[in-house]
Amino acid sequence: MSVAQQSTVPSSPWLLLVFSLPRKGASLRVSVWRKLQRYGSLPLGNSGYLLPNDVANREKFEWLATTIRSARGDASVVEVQSIDNCATPQLKKRFSEARAEAYRELLSEAAGAQSSTVSPTQITRLRQRFQEISAIDFFDGPMRDQVERALAVLSAPRESDSDAMKISPGDYRGRVWITRPRPGVDRVMSAWLIGKFVDPRARFAFALHKNKPKNAIPFDMYEGGFGHRGDDCTFETLTKAFRIRDKIVQIMGQIVHDADLLDEKFGRKEGFGIDEVMKGWARQNLSDAQLLDRGMELAEGLYHSLRKR
Prior knowledge:
Number of helices: 10
Strand order of the largest sheet: 1-5-2-4-3
Shape: elongated
Low-confidence stretches: 1-8, 159-164
Largest sheet: 5 strands, antiparallel
Order of helices and strands: EEHEEHEHHHEHEEHHHH
Strand content: 5-15%
Distance between the termini: 29 Å
């Protein structure tokens, strides 16, 4: 095993946590083991525990090492360039196999749920578990998409084709889109969706319904246009109306839904952070246009972040 010196820029593909615990530390031993499981680390014989080398994983190992040392144990975090008896493809396979087992269990639960009446609480629990597993699926295991599709089917609304909105996308390009003042998470994310997938030349304005400009397209307003429909938030309504099939957009719809409707339907928490940031900016007396621009930048960042998972 060759070990490289630590550096601020990852130069080695792996991180290894090597530690020893004090003899009288049963509770510490259980706590450390649970954290290592939650991190998705791979036991490497008696040598320690392995994770792919990135900033997030380094922070997890460094804090865990600090906890061990503060309890009078010994711990070191080292960068590992290669392991002589286990090549990189083999290590990646072992990580993927560990996640595959968890995915199979989740897929079995989802399949069982489809044969009975599924409650929102059940769907939320399954989605939360999926997020926990996928967060430590470092090498995009082959079962990930299969489980995600199964959960999407499970939580899809039972809607007939006749209920779908019939629109012509060409009628909605180069237009002014109007929404209520002081935009929050659903409106800024919807504006981003419109600009990226529906109307690249969209212009946005703000007004109460009674003062909306003629020929402007309302979104997330209380009357007319694209808004909440059934159990859907505005972002979801737009996604369905314009038949946007982008996989990441579907995930973003779940995030916006949970933050906007507060029903925990999908078990997504990311949108609450965006909403809190929007509230903070609003308290700084930013204009509606500034709030929308900043919110759309957050949405774009979220989109690219989700693409890397």
